[in-house]
């Protein structure tokens, strides 16, 4: 299904008052968190695997926004039992009378990049990529939709999920899984006040990509700004930067017989 | 659409702001202060890189390692009572200005671009339009944490005696050669807000410039001037001066909000096949700029962005000079013979027909810098961009060197890609002292060119 950049006529959502960021230490996630707090959000719960990394992000946010409430929670993001508990803790107990999740934006941003060749050669590594980058974010997404009846849930997919390529299909398949989940949950929540946003960043200059040729990599600050604007507006699919919408439309439409001869 | 493991490091082409080269580098990300000693020990020799806003080779290391600290962009602490801000090395000055100007604090000293890192500002000991009153960036640094390539961690500040002070003076303006800066504390300055009351005043001669500049420094914090370098002797220019001013009811321009700044503005779209600044366009550009500025002369309240950072408005403006890049020539000349030496340089430049519409003339205050290799010192500062035309440009710059050398001036290392060793050694008398503090595991193209290793 071709992705639409925005829903014409949809009203822009109000700026979130509360944030929950899963995988909060990633470069893209922490830049998004800064921008949301900058725009007026008053609290952020940072969830991740590593307490030291979470504390670093939290300290930065506290210095920047002394009035905001910043909390951290380190946990095993793959623990299925824990996902449900964590989500009901932050989304279940809302203001009495208000819909669960009203004013809340949840960003699900975790994942790991492993060299394709490595995960191809080692099934255990392939399984880890699929788990960390595909299955776990999908379950967080499922749990959030099950618990919240309002607000916004954004999940980071990737342009890599748009079409399988020999250079990164295991990572791409994980992101593709997220895309189908988000699509189905958008169908399920259609017409309700709860919005599900699939974000697809293009190649971004982060510590993960520092060793790649930097030409063509988008600055993380620009990607984050695009994401924040798109998520606030509640667009179902946000390409960041936006040019990837066009590029991937072309990539998806290349006939297989031609595609399979391309080296990219 | 590529996937890469965080441990794998591959090759990447890197240019500095002058775009004179485009060599392969091994870019190694440094993501935290704790990880730095291990990464340095494993990947030395190398040199730190920030936003690559230096013009020449100070942060280049062709074929070698660059330690990339740009993702270490977190604020660590701020004391509202003293204005002391502690940061990671990759924090951009832009971030500090935007975050704190609304709370009544700004950087005491800022260079002409805010898209530079704190560590880069320290390592090049940058200065701004208020040198006479506020000195250089290093004058407001309280503490630096350095990691050496042998794993040693050194914390130093300006008031440590005597060993720490030595490290501090070597590191401020030290071109990244004393160790990797992993943390710094800087003292911000109280301001009424992000606004300045600014004024542009045309001048028609160099003596007039000096008179106007000296008079302005009595009552204005920020003073700088643009000079038309095509007129042979500085027959016209515009002096700009400003003071911070409270103006609480004004709307901050969108580009000055964090979301606006993150989105970016206009980008120079392509690298034209030839420099757009050439002997045909040069006098026209200068005349047009002068007339535009003259027409708008007078006082007005402006946001700090267009006053401090006019060139940041067009991202990648350095592309305008075409695929061969450009040299920026920035010298400081002693005040005693400032008028003659500036006149001589402008005459040579005008005769050559080279140059650009970026000519900056400004007096520097009567204070010696803290850093052993810091640039700013008492005198008059002249800055000119030159599109790279190859040998003829290098020959022109060599003839400018002769004037600088004769008058006992020096060139700014942050801008340099070609100065002769003799001029470097003559201009930086504390060089011998500095070499004691070098980290043997750190080497850049500049250090090999000028310091021999």
Automatic annotation (TrEMBL), chain A:
<dbReference type="InterPro" id="IPR002347">
    <property type="entry name" value="SDR_fam"/>
</dbReference>
<keyword id="KW-0560">Oxidoreductase</keyword>
<dbReference type="GO" id="GO:0016491">
    <property type="term" value="F:oxidoreductase activity"/>
</dbReference>
<protein>
    <recommendedName>
        <fullName>Short-chain dehydrogenase</fullName>
    </recommendedName>
</protein>
<dbReference type="GO" id="GO:0016020">
    <property type="term" value="C:membrane"/>
</dbReference>
<dbReference type="InterPro" id="IPR036291">
    <property type="entry name" value="NAD(P)-bd_dom_sf"/>
</dbReference>
<comment type="similarity">
    <text>Belongs to the short-chain dehydrogenases/reductases (SDR) family.</text>
</comment>
<dbReference type="Pfam" id="PF00106">
    <property type="entry name" value="adh_short"/>
</dbReference>
């Amino acid at each position: 299904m071709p992705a639409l950049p925005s829903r014409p006529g949809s009203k822009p959502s109000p700026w979130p008052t509360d944030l929950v960021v899963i995988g909060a230490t990633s470069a893209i996630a922490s830049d998004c968190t800064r921008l949301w707090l900058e725009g007026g959000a008053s609290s952020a719960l940072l969830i991740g695997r590593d307490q030291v990394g979470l504390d670093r992000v939290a300290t930065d946010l506290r210095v920047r926004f002394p009035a905001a409430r910043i909390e951290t929670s380190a946990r095993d993001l793959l623990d299925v039992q824990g996902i449900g508990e964590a989500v009901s803790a932050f989304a279940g107990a809302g203001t009495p009378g208000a819909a669960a999740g009203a004013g809340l934006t949840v960003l699900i941003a975790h994942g790991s990049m492993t060299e394709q060749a490595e995960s191809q050669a080692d099934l255990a590594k392939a399984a880890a990529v699929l788990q960390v980058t595909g299955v776990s974010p999908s379950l967080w997404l499922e749990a959030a939709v099950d618990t919240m009846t309002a607000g916004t849930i954004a999940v980071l997919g990737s342009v890599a999920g748009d079409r399988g390529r020999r250079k990164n299909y295991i990572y791409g398949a994980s992101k593709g899984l997220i895309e189908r989940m988000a699509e189905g949950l958008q169908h399920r929540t259609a017409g309700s006040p709860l919005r599900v946003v699939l974000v697809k960043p293009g190649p971004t200059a982060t510590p993960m990509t520092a060793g790649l040729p930097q030409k063509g990599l988008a600055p993380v600050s620009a990607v984050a700004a695009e994401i924040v604007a798109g998520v606030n507006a509640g667009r179902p699919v946000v390409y960041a930067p936006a040019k990837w919408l066009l590029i991937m439309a072309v990539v998806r439409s290349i006939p297989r017989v031609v595609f399979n001869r391309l080296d990219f | 659409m590529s996937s890469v493991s965080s441990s794998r490091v591959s090759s990447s082409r890197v240019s500095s702001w002058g775009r004179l080269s485009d060599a392969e580098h091994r870019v190694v990300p440094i993501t935290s202060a704790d990880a730095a000693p291990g990464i340095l020990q494993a990947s030395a020799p190398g040199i730190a890189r920030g936003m690559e806003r230096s013009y020449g080779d100070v942060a280049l290391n062709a074929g070698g390692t660059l330690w990339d600290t740009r993702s270490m962009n977190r604020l660590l602490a701020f004391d509202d009572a003293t204005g002391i801000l502690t940061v990671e090395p990759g924090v951009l000055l832009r971030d500090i200005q935007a975050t704190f100007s609304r709370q009544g604090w700004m950087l005491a000293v800022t260079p002409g671009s805010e898209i530079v890192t704190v560590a880069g500002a320290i390592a090049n000991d940058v200065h701004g339009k208020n040198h006479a009153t506020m000195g250089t960036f290093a004058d407001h640094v309280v503490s630096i944490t350095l990691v050496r390539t042998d794993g040693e961690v050194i914390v130093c500040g300006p008031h440590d005696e005597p060993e720490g002070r030595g490290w501090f003076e070597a590191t401020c303006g030290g071109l990244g050669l004393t160790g990797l800066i992993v943390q710094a504390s800087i003292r911000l300055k109280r301001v009424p807000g992000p606004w300045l009351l600014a004024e542009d005043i045309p001048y028609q001669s160099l003596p007039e410039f000096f008179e106007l500049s000296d008079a302005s420094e009595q009552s204005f914090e920020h003073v700088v001037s643009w000079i038309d370098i095509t007129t042979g002797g500085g027959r016209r220019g515009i002096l700009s001066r400003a003071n911070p001013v409270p103006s609480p009811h004004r709307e901050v321009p969108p580009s000055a909000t964090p979301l606006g700044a993150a989105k970016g503005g206009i980008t120079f779209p392509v690298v034209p096949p030839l420099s757009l600044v050439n002997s045909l366009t040069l006098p026209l550009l200068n005349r047009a700029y002068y007339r535009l500025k003259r027409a708008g002369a007078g006082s007005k309240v402006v946001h700090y962005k267009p006053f401090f950072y006019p060139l940041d408005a067009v991202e990648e403006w350095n592309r305008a000079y075409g695929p061969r890049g450009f040299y920026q020539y920035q010298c400081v000349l002693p005040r005693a013979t400032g008028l003659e030496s500036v006149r001589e340089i402008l005459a040579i430049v005008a005769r050559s027909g080279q140059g650009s519409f970026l000519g900056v003339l400004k007096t520097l205050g009567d204070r010696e810098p803290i850093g052993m290799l810091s640039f700013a010192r008492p005198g008059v500062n002249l800055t000119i961009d030159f599109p790279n035309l190859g040998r003829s440009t290098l020959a022109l710059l060599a003839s400018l060197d002769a004037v600088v050398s004769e008058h006992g001036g020096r060139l700014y290392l942050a801008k340099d890609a070609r100065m002769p060793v003799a001029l470097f050694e003559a201009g930086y008398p504390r060089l011998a002292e500095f070499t004691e503090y070098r980290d043997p595991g750190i080497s850049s193209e500049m250090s090999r060119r000028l310091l021999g290793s």
